[in-house]
Amino acid sequence: MKLRSIVIWTAVALVGAAGWAVLALSRGEEVSAVWLLAAALGSYAIAYRFYARFIVRRVLGADDRRATPAERLDNGIDYHPTDRRILFGHHFAAIAGAGPLVGPVLAAQMGFLPGTIWIVAGVIFAGAVQDMVILFFSMRRNGRSLGQMARDEIGPVGGAAALIAVFAIMIILLAVLALVVVNALAQSPWGVFSIAMTIPIALFMGFYLRVIRPGKVVETTVIGVALLLLAIVAGGWVQDSSWAPFFTLSPSALALWLIAYGFVAAVLPVWMLLAPRDYLSTFMKIGTIALIAIGIAITMPTLKTPAFTDFAFSGEGPVFAGSLFPFVFIIIACGALSGFHALISSGTTPKMIQKESQVRMIGYGSMLMESFVAVMAITAACVLTPGLYFAMNSPAGVVGATVESASQAVTNLGFVITPEQLSAAADAVQEETLIARTGGAPTLAVGISQIFSGFLGGAALQAFWYHFAIMFEALFILTTVDAGTRVGRFMLQDTIGNVWKPISRVSWWPGLIVTSAVVVAAWGYFLYQGVNDPLGGINQLFPLFGIANQLLAAVALTVGTTLLIKSGRLKWAWVTAIPLAWDVAVTLTASWQKVFSPDPTLGFFSQRDRYQTALDQGQLLAPAKTQGEMEQIVLNSTIDGILAALFAILIIVVILDALRVWIRVIRSGETLPTAEAPFEESKILAPAGLIATREERAMMAKASPDG
Predict the structure, then answer these.
(1) 372 burial type by CB count under 10 A (0-12 exposed, 13-18 middle, 19+ buried)
(2) Which residues form the CstA N-terminal domain (predicted)?
(3) What average pLDDT does the structure give for the chain?
(4) Helical pair 574-596 and 324-331, crossing angle rounded to 10 deg
């Protein structure tokens, strides 16, 4: 390494270390959010430069001479060599859903420090590693899905358990994400119009890049981003025009439109809609997050939330029940480690990547960016006063419906906010009330509006920024639904293909149409029922979201560890085995508590017993208002408890079966055959990173017809 590089990276390390030191050592006083920014960015830079590079070169052994499935199997539908910049946008947009936005906001109940540590350390050593490793191994296996890789590499028993668990969890995750989108866009003509316009813009970009001006990525980007910004501004015009009623949709109507869009996005060729739309939305996502970071650097707000709150140790917080371990690692479902990402890494992305070395930028780099989203989310939550935070995120049963009752309830929690301050906060964003606006999304929007108004327009524009943030959250989450549906189709085709081979051809039109319809119908049913019944549909399964997602990560890390061991890389297996051990400890502990805890606010079966006892005595317990709702809560708690236990058992079966394979390899001292595709020479020349190096530019210039 040259002296210049040593100086630069030493400075980066010192900035990150200084940020962590201030965050860790400050006690009893407010800390500037700038230190949180420095800690995160410094850590990310070091991790990407050194740790990710080490894994790609030494552990995985990426080989750019080897043709990827996008090149070998290119058919213009699912397999299509895609420019790394477009693919980065697709992958980031597909993995960045509700988790990094709302999970960290809810985790702020326990203070800013535990969530921040997990978000940054978790992504460096677990989340980004999982995404990159699974992307690499799926790419080496013609883009096989996670469940099918488990079956091929672990065995029929563990593979069957993985296929069942992965597909069932996938349907739950998609329905939950779709529900968040519906809740954010319902009765919002601005949001509906702006997001609807991204579809024709993406179609135009897809045809422009493939037919009109092939290869002109920068040119296409400029046009697409300009049209996107126009669509966002026009959304505000539509909201105040006679067109507003046309774009003011009920939750039921939105759910139906979302189901239809999910089917179309899963069926159309990937270059036509999915990839350009995700790439387009990435500019808004990353642009907004970058603006938040700039706003923090300029306004230098302080973190009003303490490093740790009492709820981190008591486990009796009003936002969610459970102690710091294991539930802070569960509630932050995507910002640090997410099983859903492994589905994308073994779904659309490995069928589109041009070169093996690009897994570092697309797999590891995209996950670092999502982690930064989570850091910005927890920062936005923690710059609010704790009184406002708990008034917004505590359920109505705790804070009541009036500013007076909310003020008193928050005071009882140990924080202070007056009725006048609660009313002023609602007026500032032009909302009737901010009391009991649970779920994290409204809190994030208020935090973003305060940061933006601090350097863009002042208090007069806070309401504008609040509603912009709500629309931004909906767009952020929607892109995971379309890609997830396509991935669900791949998984179903792989699963049925074990019995009937023709359907395993992922681009066979009859098969892809039927399996897409099945996947959409599955999550669409739960979504539509949940939209129309506050205790039905996906609302029944919502409490499983966090645990199910992290159990899915255990499957992915198990597959990654198995493939490292089987392919003769036992000495590097710790790269995935250590995060696997941590994830298993967290998720199985959480599963045990959710199933067997005697606390009805935590355990599913104890909650069922509490409501059943009250039902037998003719009593009504909140949130139920009728006997029928009491019976529904009893049923929901029973279903959730059974499924939580079932998912945990399935994951244990996968791990035990994988352990059998590990022991066999270790005892024999030999490698085992894998399902890796044969080597074929690549004819594609493309940079490994976002910016081509001097050597890469020279190589591509020499190979070009004009060179």
Answers:
(1) buried
(2) 32-590
(3) 91
(4) 110
> Across residues 6-17, what is the average pLDDT?
95
In a domain? residue 378: yes
Q: State the Cα angle at 218 between 214 and 221, rounded to 5°.
A: 95
- Rounded CA-CA distance 319/390 in Å is 8
Number of domains in the chain: 1
CB 546 within 8 A of CB 173: no
Percent of the chain past pLDDT 70, that is, above it, reads: 99
Of 47-61, 586-600, 688-702, minimum mean pLDDT range: 688-702
C-beta atoms surrounding 109 within 10 Å: 24
- pTM as predicted: 0.93
Nearest alpha carbon to residue 508 among 490, 488, 529, 528: 490
Per residue, the 3-state secondary structure of 376-417, as one string, reads: HHHHHHHCCCHHHHHHHHCCHHHHCCCHHHHHHHHHHCCCCC
Q: How many CB atoms lie within 10 A of CB 250?
A: 13
The residue range of the domain holding 303 is: 3-187+249-394+438-700
pLDDT over 90, % of the chain: 65
For 604-634, write each residue's pLDDT tens digit: 999 999 999 999 998 998 888 899 999 999 9
Q: Distance from CA of residue 157 to its chain's centroid?
A: 29
Place of tokens 């046009």: 223
Q: Does residue 283 belong to any structural domain of this protein? A: yes
**Any domain includes 143:** yes
Where does the pLDDT of residue 706 fall: very low under 50, low under 70, confident under 90, or very high at 90 and above?
Answer: low
Q: How far apart are CA 594 and CA 420, in angstroms?
A: 39
Asked if the structure places residue 195 within a domain, the reply is: no
Q: Give residue 524's Cα distance to chain centre.
A: 20
